[in-house]
Design brief:
Layout lengths: L8 H13 L1 H14 L1
Helix pairs in contact: 1-2
Amino acid sequence: MVNLATATPSESETVSLQTQDSSAECITATVVLGKEG
């Protein structure tokens, strides 16, 4: 899962919504945030 401690508030909210919507999207968000961070 994404480390919300290093994510911006907007990213944290987005990841939360994606987690509820689709686990695949949550995984994608984890990869993207991992590359950015």
